Amino acid sequence: MAAQFARETGTKGEFTRQTNRFTDRITADGAGGRVPEAGRYRLIVSLACPWAHRAIIVRRLLGLEDAISLGVVDPIRDERGWRFTLDEGDRDPVLGIGFLSEAYLRTDPAYEGRVTVPSLVDTETGTVVTNDYPRITLDLETEWTAHHRPGAPDLYPPHLRPEIDAVAADLFRDVNNGVYRCGFASSQEAYEQAYDALFSRLDVLTERLAGQRYLVGDRITEADVRFFTTLVRFDAVYHNHFKCNRNKLTENPVLWAYARDLFQTPGFGDTVDFDQIKRHYYATHEQLNPSRIVPKGPDLSGWTTPHGREALGA
Ligand SMILES: N[C@@H](CCC(=O)N[C@@H](CS)C(=O)NCC(=O)O)C(=O)O
Questions:
Q1: Order of strands, sheet of 128-130, starting from the edge strand that comes earlier in the sequence
Q2: What are the distances in angstroms from CA 260 to CA 58, 65, 231, 305?
Q3: Cβ(130)–Cβ(112) under 8 Å?
Q4: Where are the residues of the annotated region Disordered (predicted)?
């Protein structure tokens, strides 16, 4: 079976995600040579991408919109990768580039991996500071506090960090990246392993969320942001396109109510673009969907129905 990403496929047909190439950090103490500076950095995202979606939600929840600007790429990549064809003149208005790859090559002329979102770009140099998506949100939460809006939530409170990190590690392996391991597997065995791990983990998380409103503690944290970006794509994309089809999200009363609760929280649902999500997945993975036909469904009207999760407290 041909792999969608041959360079990231192991000998048993398993998808092994590339490492993040750019990992500089912007920290309050300036240890890495960069401090948070309003207006200097630009977050480049695709509204379709679950890893980028984390950063979009966190930026909104923390009120960092004025400090960090947002560039949005076209959900459909061409053979040159992510492009700024949603912008006038097909160029990002701040960076002046037509393709995200231009920033990557300016930073590392020898770069050969996939050019990915989210990427945080320095608007003064046009170079990529980081595409290390798990670190990006944690740093927005802990290093950019001087720029947070008054009353911004603490999404990564010190006393909850060990538990958030543990939940996030399981989530990443089995769920966030697990759906990709199902979809990009190029052997039956690798697919079934990923599928089993995904649904076993969803069973464990269902049990956990049956008795508590949020994943960790009594408040929304980074862990919920990470779970949400996969759940909101589940029925629209992963169930069908990535063959994650034991159950739909809407068939799991606990997770469906949990996802709706988050969706109806400002910063979550208002950052979801189902049209771009569907067009991106179905039209860019030619190995999985050669016809590029985008399914019409599912019916999305359920997302705004009452969820009843207030009864669990918090
Ligand atoms: N930076 C990570 C994760 C981010 C990521 O995979 N983003 C996707 C979109 S959801 C992307 O930019 N893909 C570009 C490509 O496949 O060429 C990676 O390198 O795997």
A1: 69-72, 41-45, 119-122, 128-130
A2: 18, 24, 10, 8
A3: no
A4: 1-20, 294-314
Q: Report d(CA 149, CA 85) in Å as an integer.
A: 31
Q: With contact defined as beta carbons under 8 Å apart, do 61 and 153 qualify?
A: yes
b/e 139-176 (16+ beta carbons within 10 angstroms → b): bbbbbbeebbeeeebbbbbeebbeebeebbebbeebbb
- 306 backbone dihedrals φ, ψ, rounded to 5°: -55, 145
Residue 143: closest CA among 233, 83, 67: 67
Q: Give the tens place of pLDDT for each residue, 46-60.
A: 999 999 999 999 999
Instruction: Name the residue of 117, 181, 284, 288 to mutate for ligand 1: max ligand atoms within 8 A of Cβ.
Output: 117
- Give per-residue pLDDT as tens, 219-263: 999 999 999 999 999 999 999 999 999 999 999 999 999 999 999
Q: Which domains does the chain have, with CATH numbers?
A: 20-147 (3.40.30.10), 158-312 (1.20.1050.10)
Cβ count within 10 A of residue 267: 18
Say how many residues make up the chain.
314
**Residue to probe by mutation, ligand 1, list 54, 114, 179, most atoms within 8 Å of CB:** 114
